[in-house]
């Protein structure tokens, strides 16, 4: 058994947000997302079929929601975003890497 | 929408390992586990029906496996433990809180 570190292979060039799968399975997907000043495209909201739980591990970012609210997240801050709760990344720190841990999952009955 | 922080409500008294659900759904369970010198009971191995992905967020801990290997985990270190891969927590730092983030999940087809 061998471990990895969440800081492994951080992208040197961040022309776009860098998304890496940590776990990809039928019911769950765990991603590391690395941003530096990136925001969601202006064109619209994320409107996902999956529930998402996301935590900032390093850096800082803001999520905005279709109800007009904005949540600012610092390291250790986490939030649950139900499926189809429209949201966007409205800000990430331009001066440092922001590392997000995101767990996307579906319900099965 | 409101965020929480992974350091919220850290237990003052750690007579036993403290386990808190962050997300509990049909296919996935996200837990915060706080240890301070705790190890798995000597009586045996964890032998789980679920896959587990676990990361140390703070502190230090060691996982031992039935194949004789031991993996020492520091902050940011993470490891995937397949279902029925027998393991135990063989050490956690006795001098500071160790915070683990664990994602347990099942496969659906």
Question: What structural keywords apply?
Answer:
mainly beta; 109 residues; five-stranded antiparallel sheet; three-stranded antiparallel sheet; 0% helix
Query: Helical region count of chain A?
Result: 0
Largest sheet of chain A: 5 strands, antiparallel
Shape descriptor of chain A reads: globular
Low-pLDDT runs of 5+ residues of chain A are none
Termini separation of chain A comes to: 33 Å
Report the helical percentage of chain A.
under 10%
Structural class of chain A: mainly beta
Strand content of chain A: over 45%
Name the chain pair whose interface involves the most residues.
A-B, 39 and 40 residues
The radius of gyration computed from the alpha-carbon positions of chain A, rounded to a whole number of angstroms, is: 14 Å
Average predicted confidence as pLDDT of chain A: 93
Q: Could you spell the SSE succession of chain A in H and E letters?
A: EEEEEEEEE
Oligomer: homodimer
Output the strand order for the largest sheet of chain A: 2-3-9-4-7
Q: Let me know the number of strands of chain A.
A: 9
Question: What do these coordinates show?
Answer:
Chain A is an all-beta fold. Chain A contains no helices and nine strands. In chain A, the strands form two sheets. In chain A, strands 2-3-9-4-7 form a five-stranded antiparallel β-sheet, with no helix packed on it. In chain A, strands 6-5-8 form a three-stranded antiparallel β-sheet, with no helix packed on it. In chain A, strand 5 and strand 6 form a beta hairpin. Chain A is globular, with a radius of gyration of 14 Å. The model of chain A has no long low-confidence stretch (mean pLDDT 93). At the A-B interface, strand 1, strand 4, strand 7 and strand 9 of A face strand 1, strand 4, strand 7 and strand 9 of B.
């Amino acid at each position: 058994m061998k471990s990895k570190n969440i800081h492994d292979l951080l992208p040197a060039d961040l022309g776009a947000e860098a998304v890496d799968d940590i776990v990809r399975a039928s019911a769950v997907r765990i991603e590391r997302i690395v941003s530096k000043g990136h925001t969601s495209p202006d064109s619209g909201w994320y409107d996902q079929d999956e529930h998402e739980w996301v935590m900032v591990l390093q850096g800082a970012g803001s999520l905005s929601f279709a109800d007009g609210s904005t949540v600012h997240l610092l390291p250790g801050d986490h939030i649950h975003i139900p499926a189809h709760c429209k949201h966007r990344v409205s800000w990430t720190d331009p001066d440092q890497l922001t590392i997000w841990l995101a767990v996307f999952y579906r319900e099965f009955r």
